[in-house]
Amino acid sequence: MAQSKPKHQDYWYLVLATSSIVIGPVLLMFRADGASYWEKWIYITLFIPLGFLVIFLNYTREITLALSNENEEVQKLLLLKIKTKYLRYLLFYIPVVLGYAGLCMWILWKGGL
After folding, report:
1. Which pLDDT value is given to residue 8?
2. Which residues, other chains included, contact 40 with Cβ-Cβ below 8 Å and sequence gap of 6+?
């Protein structure tokens, strides 16, 4: 019998992945002394399009795998599950990155880093 994983385990992986790509730009924000306010903000938010690209590439990979299934009913079910899963990912990712970009903008503005 296969072990079932916790319901929110996928979300924790998404949180860890997002935070791991944020650490570098945040450190750059504190280290880039000669950069202007907007340059620093662009540096630290440049990972956002990269995150969308990774989500899109994984989505297309899973869709391609689902379409390779020969059973049409299974194919429809897999496509629905994949679309629902990635919609949830986007609904999680978009507010997080908007909040992150706003927080970084506020830190740069208030702190004068």
Report:
1. 62
2. 28, 29, 32, 108, 113
